[in-house]
């Protein structure tokens, strides 16, 4: 049983283990951010059919892991980086209601909109988005032509958790080539860099000490013509501390630290797809306004 598998099955084994090794307790304030992306209607674990992913994932196990972490950690946040829809018959049969209700029960705080959320068009979103008991953020979509949805999606939101004032905003990949035009009638795509700059400025002005981007742009994506990607974004937008990505289904085992515009680094990660992995990033506030981060994702098995 390798270490990650152990962590997944034994839940918070790491915490117990590090205590047993007599590591000095770290008293800096800590926020644990849990993340999924591209869960793609995978309510059940992959079937035991001899395939590579057999037995992995499943919303019930995800909830068990999230609950355990919330029991132990004082400050937590659970987010999703988009594409919760499409991929199994649950979506074809129920149009996304099952996915949203499952996320409600796991207790998500904030999610961004992925391209597959549009697969049943605006009418499909009108049936599903209002069911969410979590917040939707997307900074580079203008919903003013889709009147019933406009009040449901904000460019950004702020969560005050202990000493953390967390500013979260969303960005989405180009709609062109990704979403059929008849499926996003009334929703206009805005430049992600400009939109992100505006959100970061507003979040900074409100005193956020941690800026998190929920990105559905992809990391080193293979899609031709897509100009913006998570690995290029930090060089163009100042002030983002952490990008929790999606879209390219990339498993990043460690946080990728990229130099950011205006100095400092932006850390980027992504948790593959299908809910096989629950991302866990621990952020600690340091003296001054510094942030220390480490990633330790959990295998959902
Ligand atoms: Zn996507």
TrEMBL record:
<dbReference type="InterPro" id="IPR006179">
    <property type="entry name" value="5_nucleotidase/apyrase"/>
</dbReference>
<keyword id="KW-0547">Nucleotide-binding</keyword>
<dbReference type="InterPro" id="IPR006146">
    <property type="entry name" value="5'-Nucleotdase_CS"/>
</dbReference>
<keyword id="KW-0378">Hydrolase</keyword>
<protein>
    <submittedName>
        <fullName>Metallophosphatase</fullName>
    </submittedName>
</protein>
<dbReference type="GO" id="GO:0046872">
    <property type="term" value="F:metal ion binding"/>
</dbReference>
<dbReference type="GO" id="GO:0000166">
    <property type="term" value="F:nucleotide binding"/>
</dbReference>
<dbReference type="InterPro" id="IPR004843">
    <property type="entry name" value="Calcineurin-like_PHP"/>
</dbReference>
<feature type="domain" description="Calcineurin-like phosphoesterase">
    <location>
        <begin position="32"/>
        <end position="250"/>
    </location>
</feature>
<dbReference type="GO" id="GO:0009166">
    <property type="term" value="P:nucleotide catabolic process"/>
</dbReference>
<dbReference type="Pfam" id="PF00149">
    <property type="entry name" value="Metallophos"/>
</dbReference>
<dbReference type="InterPro" id="IPR029052">
    <property type="entry name" value="Metallo-depent_PP-like"/>
</dbReference>
<dbReference type="GO" id="GO:0016788">
    <property type="term" value="F:hydrolase activity, acting on ester bonds"/>
</dbReference>
<comment type="similarity">
    <text>Belongs to the 5'-nucleotidase family.</text>
</comment>
